[in-house]
């Protein structure tokens, strides 16, 4: 008999280990199996067809006739490609920020030589559409984050885009939809968003390594090449190539096979069902947290991630650490808010019944941390939210 | 937009597909990854060591100094090997039966030329230790099933073995522990059970293809070779070979690598914790079923599988069919009781939070079937059973 690893949770080594962080997420076995096929070649006919197939599915997942470029990069790389391929260096770029990821786009624009104007709100708060539109009145490009993964806020992309467009019809709007694409309601053609950026390890439930940039038909006429910027991330060249079935650079072709398989699951239902189901799952996590005295940080919550504020006396790192002791990979907040919140997510290959299970995990976690609550309350609240 | 596959469950295509049948069960990703390593060779030093390692872990999982033989066969093949390697053809064999699997051992013994005496109880009922002991008084071998997977009954192996042994000290007792090994409390050295038979796709959470036969030190002195029976399944030769690190036949070596990894998870806690946790998970399924008007069939339930009787007007096949529509692979009853019961299990790579999720699945399933119940009752009952 071996002694138990954790006296508090002698059963914990028997737990199924879960990724419940907002990316990388759980990946379906049939998607993983795609990766390990005999090595594909991106110039072979099958590889070309797989690229075209995945690109078409990416457009379908947006529900709009946008053209997709698949980059071999993280979402950040894809965002840089979107920026340098639409916006001449020296142009005015407005960066609306209220969290870690939106701050990154401002830093990026500054480093790349854009005249960057910030519209900042404290973390956890919402961006004001009129304030953003005011700053963007004379800008070339607006950088906006839809789902802010560091705070769990879902910014009102529709209202912001409509207001900004009304004050500046020529504005190019690039939206960081890294955790909202395939997750939250997103209608860029109706809302007037020109460029959508995302990455593979979030809503599309694929391993990390691919970025996605989806261009509206109108913005494609305005794509540029910036002297001194973006050779690898020259999406103007990349879009032309990929439309013709080839990638100027060598793509992570195994990941593209996996992506195409993963997208089938998402596209098996209408987009409204997909969005509603992800909303329901995250509402269940938020309801569970609220029942435990850990409500959501943001007023308008993203369906991508539940960013929850622990009860007084507990820190985000303590909660994430206790979840890790249970075999569950969640995240604390992002610096400097590591202890303000903890973050859990059901993006990826996790369904409503997994969300219910996570409510149980939260109860066991909070009990171990000495929080007083009515046992069963979080599970009941989660299940009520799922129905 | 594609139309939803199932109008009742537009979200069902988004579900994570689960094996919730009593085998094959969910297998952990790191166990599956073992299968796909560069092809191993069973005569290479690494292959020999892996065999010895897996055999040692199988003994540890029994908590007794029994010696394990790993067969490349199903559990049925392993059982046949146990029988022909301990019992001379023509000897009297008592077969205690109360369900599909125990019936199989009687059929097998008859076919192989044993004088077979049946002690039969209707499916779902329990075997009576005194009745079995009475029949076994002049028998060579007793064939007994611990966990009857067709009815969900856990027979009282301890009481039966003690009673039979008291009346016949030389009796060889072979126990079908196919779904109890690594799942239910099992102390063969204390209880006086000579031979334990199981298979890889149950409690050990490994893909199918391997059988296990564990021999007590005492019974090893009585192993025989039966003329005309058991060349491939000659476990007398196999045990001698495997003790020396080689298998007379070619084993499914990839599965042995997988098995060794899978056993690590089970052996990470004391056996009592392992048994208690599996008991708790199955109690949660039974509690959920009971809350929905689908109580357990058997009076003394096995922790391996919840065999539940659907409410009046519903059949086992209807329930299993509706679970399949939700992407969940359960089972109806076994012929001729397909419609008497349905069967769900959390053996394998599924934890207490998965059991909670399955309670939610049952609610959605029963609602779709038009059963009236208090929404949330099954989830609440399951969670109460898990605490």
From TrEMBL, chains A, B:
PROSITE patterns, per the entry: AA_TRANSFER_CLASS_5
N6-(pyridoxal phosphate)lysine: modified positions: 202
GO biological process, one term: glycine biosynthetic process, by transamination of glyoxylate
Binding-site residues for substrate, renumbered to this chain: 343
Signal peptide: none
Required cofactor(s): pyridoxal 5'-phosphate
Pfam families with a match to the protein in the record: Aminotran_5
Boundaries of every Aminotransferase class V domain copy: 39-286
Domain of life: Bacteria
Gene3D superfamilies associated with the record: Aspartate Aminotransferase, domain 1, Type I PLP-dependent aspartate aminotransferase-like (Major domain)
The protein's name in its UniProt record: Aminotransferase V
Taxon lineage: Bacteria, Thermotogati, Deinococcota, Deinococci, Deinococcales
